[in-house]
Amino acid sequence: MPLSAIRTVAKPQNGVGAFILQCKKLEFHYCDWWGSSRGMNAFIKSSLPAFAKRNPSVEISISPRPRRHPVIQAHYINGNQRSICVRGMANELVREKAELLRDASGEKNQRFSKPVTSINESVRGIWSPFHGAQMRI
Amino acid sequence: MKRIRISGCASQLLARNTPRRPSCPYLHRAVAPHNHRIQTRLQTTAATPIDEEIDIEIEAGTEDSTPGPVKAPRNFKEKPLPPSPHPQAAQHSVKLAALRSRLSLHSRFPLQTLARTLVHPSADPNPAFNNASLSVLGGNLLSYYTTEWILCNYPRLPMSVVFAAQYAYIGPVALATIASEWGIEAAAVPGSEVDPGLLQFQRLKSGEKLPSLLRQEVPWKWRNTTTHKIVATDEFGSDQAPVSPHALVNTAVPMEEAAQSFVRALIGSLHLHLGSLLVKRFFRDHFLSRQLDLSSLFDFQTPTRDLSRLCAREGFEAPVARLVSETGRKSRHPVFIVGVYSGKDQLGQAAGSSLDEARIRAAAAALKAWYLYRPIEVTLPSSTENQVDTSRWKPNMVDCGEVIV
């Protein structure tokens, strides 16, 4: 065979064609007695239905966790989990934390030293000393 | 004790004698069902023969009642549970609703069908409840849309690269990856009590061999040509014999197999429920948007010979390699830049650490430049489906094919 081909798999680019929210599931744990869940309970009663309606692609479950602090736990498509303890937080703050978890990608936090990363080849190409205007010394 | 006639006690059979099944599950919602399970059988979208199903049920019923010496009257509560979740459970599944929304599917797409696409034939042998037929349809649609996109956009691509590109976009590995990127989770064991939003299949135990169906190879022939592969094998030109999804009933399969059957079945059911236009949009968004560098798929054996054959075929002057520039010929890291010229036209250029390497790389670059030609305006054949006005259609370029050496 003069020519054969190498088998690979096309790489995903979330958001280029379709966007898939990486947060799969949010679990809200509350306690009925402890004061630390007051904000969480208020959030569940007042804001959670609207939150769920705004984010239909996230599976939401609520469960009691008696005699513990309230926790929001998020499950992501890459298999990771993240949880935030929202003890003593007010309704608004709990909503902010839920949105933070919803918007996260599920990857571990890491520092990016370069502002842009790309899988595409650069348009200008790699600089070559053999092309373009030759420098004469 | 007198044997109870099944048709006598089961009034659900009366309902089943309707000659045609309604294709849409929403049509018969107002009808009060005698029995929920049977009612939903009527609601399924499959066009499988009804008689066969009844036969199976009756056989199963008689088997239950015959062996014991004392025949107790049949207790319907002890009836074995169906192997897959009830279609009505799909309405209440949070996972399914979230999945539908995550894939931005139209709310017209029923959750029951989405639940059915998640049931692999290894979990539920009944073709009216598993995704076998849908995945056949979806697989054909996927390969059709991918093939036409590749062939129209890259008309000069060699056949082996076309196969590899197909594999990269819709191959088994690609489909399984796509399913996991959609957030599909698998149920540990399939059953009626499982959440219908989970992928249901009979798992292959760890350390077990693949079922023989999935290991079958295409019968070997000494003249296995590329043309033979186009005709006889699947769309990826692989050596494995294509397996019908219907044949995988009650065989333990790996997760990859079940996940790809789900993706195919989803495409098939989208086609049936929402029409081809939306399926094409879905395909463009989820499959064609993935990044694939076609030039990295080529694996040349003798690019210089291929290039000279190509030039002879196309009537160009014979290719000549010329040194464009060099540095450090006597050093540890020499760099040579060689261009391949046909007459005065440069066909390709590349750098290499020896003169031969640079020449071969330049020939490969020239061949890739030829093979990866992309016409500016392309009309896909499927874009003119169901359209009266054919003036938009412009014939695509058809190339005479790769160089035969």
Describe the structure.
The complex is a heterodimer of chains A (137) and B (405). Chain A is of the alpha+beta class. Helix content of chain A is 22%, strand content 20%. Chain A contains two helices and five strands. In chain A, strands 3-2-4-5 form a four-stranded mixed beta sheet, with helices on one face. In chain A, helix 1 crosses helix 2. By secondary structure, chain B is mainly α. Chain B folds into three domains: 73 residues, no CATH class; 210 residues, Ribonuclease iii, N-terminal Endonuclease Domain, Chain A (Orthogonal Bundle), CATH 1.10.1520.10; 74 residues, Double Stranded RNA Binding Domain (2-Layer Sandwich), CATH 3.30.160. Helix content of chain B is 41%, strand content 7%. Chain B is built from 15 helices and four strands. Chain B has a three-stranded antiparallel beta sheet with strand order 2-3-4. In chain B, helix 7 crosses helix 8. The termini of chain B are far apart. Classes of the chains: A alpha+beta (137), B mainly alpha (405). Strand 1 of chain A pairs antiparallel with strand 1 of chain B.
Descriptive tags:
heterodimer, A: 137 residues, alpha+beta, Glutaredoxin, four-stranded mixed β-sheet, elongated, B: mainly alpha, three-stranded antiparallel β-sheet, 15 helices, ribosomal protein (chain A), ribonucleoprotein (chain A), Thioredoxin-like_sf (chain A), mitochondrion (chain A), structural constituent of ribosome (chain A)
